[in-house]
Design goal:
The complex is a heterodimer of chains A (149) and B (407). Chain A is α+β, with helices and mostly antiparallel strands and 149 residues long. Chain A is 28% helix and 52% strand. Chain A has a single domain, classed as 2-Layer Sandwich (Alpha-D-Glucose-1,6-Bisphosphate, Chain A, domain 4), CATH 3.30.530. Chain B has three domains: 130 residues, Butyryl-Coa Dehydrogenase, subunit A, domain 1, CATH 1.10.540.10; 102 residues, Butyryl-CoA Dehydrogenase, subunit A, domain 2; 158 residues, Up-down Bundle (Butyryl-CoA Dehydrogenase, subunit A, domain 3), CATH 1.20.140. Chain B is 54% helix and 14% strand. Chain B is built from eleven helices and ten strands. In chain B, strand 4 and strand 5 form a beta hairpin. In chain B, helix 2 runs antiparallel to helix 3 and helix 5 runs antiparallel to helix 7. Chain B starts with a helix and ends in an 8-residue tail after the last helix. Classes of the chains: A alpha+beta (149), B alpha+beta (407). Chains A and B meet through helix 3 of A and helix 2 and helix 7 of B. The structure holds flavin-adenine dinucleotide (FAD).
Chain lengths: 149, 407
C-alpha cells in the first residue's frame, strides 16, 4: 500500500533556524508524538519506540529515522523505517524552505505500508496520517517559534 | 470528488441535469464524508455513538439538505437528497441512519404535514442543527404491525399527555424533538402523530441500546413516556390521521436507506479493488484469481443495478410532489421506494459479505474497512420495513388491493 501526502506550513522564524532545527535529530526526536526510548545513534540518525494508537488498538513500532541529502539552508530528506505488530512502514519525505521569517516549509512524503496496517485501507490510513502529520507540524512550529521569539 | 460518486454525479448531470446549487450540495457532501472518515472509524472500533456526525454535517451546512430554502435549508429535491445520501453512505450506515432519520423521517415529515407555524418553529432549527429529530413509531410489542402500538394520549389542559414506551429509536437519546405516534386513550379514534419536545417532563431515555451487533456509531434508544406533555399546536397532520404521516415518512426514508446502501456498495468496491490488487497469495495478486473476480463482478453489478433503481424512486417521488393530488403517481413512488430499499439493502448486505470474503481473516475484524458494512447493512433489511414487509407490499402492488397480505 502506497500513500502520498504533501503540504506546506508557515513558520515565524529565520530560514536558517528552521533548517538547523529540522536537520537536528535531537530536535526531531522531541517533536515525535508518543516516542519512547529515544536513542541518538549519530548526528543524523535516531532510533525510538513509537506507540501508534488507532482507535482502541495500540501498536508499538521500532523506528529508525535518518536525515539525508541536506542542502543547507534549503532542503533535506527525512527517511524512516518502522516495524512491529505485524506491520512495516517505509517513509521517504523531503522538505524545502523558502523565504525567511516567515519561512515557508513545503513538504512531501511517500510511504509504503505492508502487513496488518495496510489492511485498514488507504482512505483511513490517509485520514490518520493527515491527522498525525498535522500534530507533528503543529509541534514543530510551536517549538521553533518559541525558540525564535 | 470521490471517483465512483463523481461518476454518479456526472451521469445524473448528463441524463437529467443538476443545477449549480445542487452540485454545491454534493461537493459539500463529498467534503463532509471525507471529514468523517477518521472519527467514524475510531468510534466504530470503540463501539460508540459518533457525536461528530451532526457536527460535521453542521459545518458543511448539510443538516437541512431537503428543507426548503425559505426555512433555511438547501432545498434539495429527492434526487439530490438521494445523491447526497449515496456519498454519505460510503462512510457507513451509522451516518446514514442519523441523516435519514433527522431528514427523511423528521424534517421532510414536518415539511409535508406541518402547519406554517410548525414549519417556522422547527425547520430553521433542524436546518441549522440546533434541533435533532427522531421518529418514534416502533414499540416493544409493535414493529411490523404499527396498528397494534400501545402508546396513548389524553387531553390535558391546553394539550395532550402521552404515555407509553418506544423501542429501537434512532437518535432517541440525542434528539431534541421527536415525531411520536399514539392512539387516544378513550374513544377508539385513529392514530395521531405529535411533535414532542424531549426536554418535556415525562420523557425519559430508558436505555441506550449499545449491545447491537453493528451500527455502533448510531444512537439507538428505548424511551418511556410518562404523561409527556404536547400542546394542541403539536399535532402533526390531522388528529386521527397519523398513519398517513407515518407511511409518507417511510416512503421518503426508504429512498434514503436505499441511497445509503448504494454508497456502501461503492465503498465495498473501492476497498475490495485496493485489497485484491495489493494482496499477494499463491504468487500473484488475489485479484488475478478468478474466484475473487467473481466477487468483484457481483459487487459492481449490484451497484449498477441499484443505483438507477434508487434514482428512479427519487425521481418518481419528485414527480409526485409536483402533482400531489395524483394518487397513481404517489402509489408508484411508494412502490418504487419499497423496491429500491428492498433490493439495495439486500445487494449491499451481500456485497459487504463478499467484500469481507475478499479481505479474508482481516475482513473478520472490525478494524477492516468492510466488516462494518457487513454488520451494519443487516439492519437495512429490518428497519423502515423488513424484507418480508417490503415483499408483501411489492407483491400486492402487482397483484392488487385484494392481495394486501399484511392487512
Ligand atoms: C438499529 C435499529 C434502529 C431502528 N430505528 C427506528 C426508529 O428510528 N424509529 C422506529 O420507529 N423504529 C426503528 N426501528 C425499529 C424497526 O423499524 C423495527 O425493528 C422493524 O419495523 C421490525 O419490527 P420488529 O422488530 O418489531 O419485528 P417484528 O415485526 O416482530 O417482525 C419479526 C419478523 O416477522 C416478520 N413479519 C412480521 N409481520 C409479518 C407478516 N405480516 N408477514 C410476514 N412476515 C412478517 C418480519 O418481517 C420479521 O422477519 C429500528 C430498529 C433497529 C434494529
Amino acid at each position: 500500500m502506497r500513500l502520498h501526502l504533501d503540504g506546506s506550513t508557515s513558520i515565524d522564524a529565520e530560514k536558517e533556524t528552521v533548517f538547523n532545527k529540522l536537520t537536528d535529530v535531537k530536535f526531531i526526536a522531541g517533536t515525535l508524538p508518543d516516542a519512547e526510548d529515544v536513542n541518538i545513534v549519530d548526528p543524523t540518525t535516531l532510533e525510538a519506540k513509537l506507540k501508534v494508537r488507532v482507535a482502541v488498538v495500540t501498536s508499538t513500532l521500532k523506528l529508525r529515522m535518518s536525515i539525508a541529502d541536506t542542502e543547507p539552508t534549503s532542503r533535506a530528506k527525512l527517511l524512516a523505517e518502522a516495524s512491529g505488530s505485524g506491520s512495516h512502514l517505509t517513509i521517504s519525505s523531503t522538505f524545502e524552505l523558502t523565504g525567511s521569517r516567515p519561512t515557508t516549509l513545503n513538504w512531501s512524503a511517500d510511504a509504503e505500508i505492508t502487513g496488518v496496517m495496510a489492511g485498514l485501507g488507504s482512505s483511513i490510513l490517509k485520514g490518520f496520517a493527515t491527522k498525525k502529520v498535522g500534530e507533528i507540524f503543529a509541534g514543530i512550529t510551536k517549538a521553533l517559534e518559541a525558540e525564535a521569539a | 470528488m470521490e471517483v465512483l460518486f463523481q461518476a454518479s454525479v456526472d451521469e445524473v448531470t448528463k441524463l437529467i441535469g443538476l443545477e449549480k446549487r445542487e452540485l454545491d450540495i454534493l461537493e459539500d457532501a463529498d467534503a463532509a464524508a471525507n471529514e468523517l472518515l477518521v472519527s467514524e472509524f475510531e468510534k466504530y472500533v470503540e463501539r460508540k455513538y459518533n457525536p461528530e456526525i451532526p457536527e460535521v454535517l453542521k459545518r458543511h451546512n448539510l443538516m437541512g439538505v431537503p428543507i426548503e430554502e425559505k426555512y433555511g435549508g438547501r432545498g434539495a429535491r429527492q434526487l439530490v437528497q438521494a445523491l447526497f445520501l449515496e456519498r454519505m453512505g460510503q462512510s457507513g450506515m451509522g451516518v446514514i441512519t442519523f441523516a435519514d432519520v433527522h431528514q427523511c423521517l423528521g424534517s421532510m415529515s414536518i415539511q409535508d404535514w406541518g402547519t406554517e407555524e410548525q414549519k417556522q418553529r422547527y425547520l430553521p432549527r433542524a436546518a441549522k442543527g440546533e434541533a435533532v429529530l427522531a421518529y418514534g413509531l416502533t414499540e416493544p410489542e409493535a414493529g411490523s404491525d404499527p396498528a397494534s402500538l400501545k402508546t396513548t394520549y389524553r387531553r390535558e389542559g391546553d394539550g395532550f399527555s402521552l404515555s407509553g414506551s418506544k423501542y429501537l429509536i434512532s437518535n432517541g437519546s440525542v434528539a431534541s424533538n421527536m415525531i411520536v405516534f399514539a392512539y387516544p386513550e378513550v374513544g377508539g379514534g385513529g392514530l395521531t402523530a405529535f411533535l414532542l419536545d424531549t426536554k418535556q417532563k415525562g420523557f425519559k431515555v430508558d436505555m441506550r441500546l449499545e449491545e447491537k451487533i453493528g451500527l455502533f456509531t448510531s444512537d439507538t434508544s428505548m424511551l418511556t413516556l410518562e404523561g409527556a406533555f404536547v400542546s394542541k399546536e403539536d399535532i402533526l397532520g390531522q388528529e386521527g390521521k397519523g398513519f398517513s404521516v407515518a407511511y409518507s415518512a417511510l416512503l421518503n426514508g426508504r429512498i434514503g436507506i436505499g441511497s445509503g446502501c448504494v454508497g456502501v456498495m461503492e465503498d465495498c468496491l473501492n476497498q475490495v479493488k485496493e485489497r485484491v490488487t495489493s494482496r499477494v497469495q499463491h504468487g500473484k495478486e488475489i485479484g488475478k484469481h478468478q474466484l475473487i473476480q467473481k466477487h468483484v463482478a457481483f459487487i459492481e453489478s449490484s451497484l449498477e443495478a441499484c443505483r438507477w433503481l434508487v434514482y428512479r424512486a427519487a425521481i418518481k417521488k419528485d414527480d409526485s410532489e409536483k402533482d400531489p393530488k395524483s394518487l397513481p403517481l404517489r402509489a408508484e413512488a411508494d412502490r418504487l421506494s419499497a423496491v429500491a430499499k428492498y433490493m439495495a439493502s439486500r445487494c449491499a448486505f451481500e456485497s459487504a459479505d463478499r467484500a469481507v470474503q475478499c479481505f479474508g481473516g482481516f475482513g473478520y475484524s472490525i478494524m477492516s474497512p468492510v466488516a462494518k458494512h457487513f454488520l451494519d447493512t443487516r439492519v437495512a433489511r429490518i428497519y423502515e420495513g423488513t424484507d418480508e414487509i417490503m415483499e408483501l407490499k411489492i407483491a400486492s402492488s402487482v397483484l392488487g388491493k385484494g392481495y394486501e397480505a399484511y392487512k
